[in-house]
Amino acid sequence: MSNILLVAVDPAFGERVSSLTGHHVVAVDAHASSTSAERHRDFRPDVVFVGTGVPIDRALTYASSVSADWPDLVLVLVSPTTRRLARRAERAGFEHVIDPGTSAADLERLAGPADVEKPADAAHRVVVVASPKGGVGKTTTAVNLTGVLAAAAPWEVVLVDLDLQFGDASAMLGLTPQNTVVDALSAEGDDSMFVRTLLTIHPSGFYLLAGADGPADGGGVTGDQVRKLVSQLSTSFRYVVVDTSAGLLEETLASLEEASDLVMVTALDVATLRSTHKELDVLGELGLVPAGRHLLLNRAHRGAGLTVRDAERMLDVAVPVVVPRSDRIGLAANHGTLAIDVKDARVRKPFDALAAAISGVRPTRHSHRGEKLA
Ligand SMILES: Nc1ncnc2c1ncn2[C@@H]1O[C@H](COP(=O)(O)OP(=O)(O)OP(=O)(O)O)[C@@H](O)[C@H]1O
Ligand SMILES: [Mg+2]
């Protein structure tokens, strides 16, 4: 027996699949609501039929996302096809492209059992990027760190914009998302397949779960919802990078409960350094500083009146990663591109070092005060 998921297929096709005996069939439409996700919380499909109710680009994104993680899942695109579409579908991870008129007998053949679970991977990391202050460079850090991790592990990284007021990672990445983290948080079930349909693809090889459209949208989210979402994503992706709002909001604390790493972003000014010290103290008292703790000093420049050493004295810890103040970083953000793609080693190296400290791979050539804090 197979578990079969039908995503936005036409009704006649759906009926033909449902008539196959001995299979468990669940159907959702392209805008599957949280209620439908809740209803099917324990449903893990063996075969997924994706119909024409899903825009083709979204179907391909979805396929490349799930096929990387569930190689045993049989993905079938149900659509009138052209050779070009068939090639794109195959590259994205669809095993078959079939016509919506495919007979029940042929469908029966596609619906063979395939019940293999992917083993848990101990190398999975959840990295929360935080800071007590706004505007210090959390999102800049999160997007560029994600870019470096994705270069090493394409399609195994998801960036979650947990800024529930004015999430702007998508703008910094030049993306126009159709869905946001709020849609994912309100999916009360445990359906990671559904959450994957909400991701926006970045051409560099990672996914974004975009931030809320505005404060009205992100209100009412609970810590439980955040914990569940982060933990769910961490079973599907090798790296989950979480961008947060300034300060210790409930959603940030909840994400830290699931975190393997904290990247604390600070700056060369007395107020930010003091607040950073306090925030680290408070998180320590709450038991919310994960084993991987990384300090990143952003916008370092000579005219600040403070040195990195001064900052380390004030914080009472080493600052292993220092990002210089650079017009290129601001420009990249305004152009919706990654600063790490700018040909400037001063900008790239600190993010390489941070990624290396997180992924456990020591930077070689790019070493930049790259040791991880204990
Ligand atoms: N090292 C840097 N040099 C120059 N500009 C920078 C640097 N880091 C960040 N910026 C710019 O500063 C602005 C704020 O950065 P960013 O959005 O990353 O901060 P944030 O901490 O995420 O802010 P918020 O709290 O509002 O979410 C952006 O325009 C960004 O491009
Ligand atoms: Mg931000």
Automatic annotation (TrEMBL):
InterPro entries registered for this protein in UniProt: CobQ/CobB/MinD/ParA_Nub-bd_dom, P-loop_NTPase, ParA/MinD_ATPase
A GO MF term: ATP binding
What Gene3D superfamilies would the database entry show?
A: P-loop containing nucleotide triphosphate hydrolases (3.40.50.300)
Record-level GO BP terms? negative regulation of cell division
One Pfam family matching this protein: CbiA
- GO CC annotations on file: cytoplasmic side of plasma membrane; cytosol
Superkingdom of origin organism: Bacteria
Annotated CobQ/CobB/MinD/ParA nucleotide binding domain ranges read 127-258
Q: PANTHER family per the record?
A: SEPTUM SITE-DETERMINING PROTEIN MIND HOMOLOG, CHLOROPLASTIC-RELATED, SLR0110 PROTEIN
This protein's name: MinD/ParA family protein
Species assigned in the record: Aeromicrobium endophyticum
